[in-house]
Amino acid sequence: MARSVTVGPRLAAIAALLAAAALLTGLPEFGVPGGTLVLVALLACAYVRVVEGGLASIGFQLPATRRDVVIGVAAALVFYAAAKLVVGPVIESAFGVQRDLSRFDALRGNAALAAKLFVGIWLTAAFAEEVLFRGFLWAQLRKLLGDGRGAQAAFVALSAALFGAVHSYQGVAGVLQTGFFGGAFAVLFLACGRRLWANVLAHGLFDSISLLLIFTNADRAIDRFMS
Question: How is residue 4 annotated by DSSP?
Answer without folding.
Answer: P
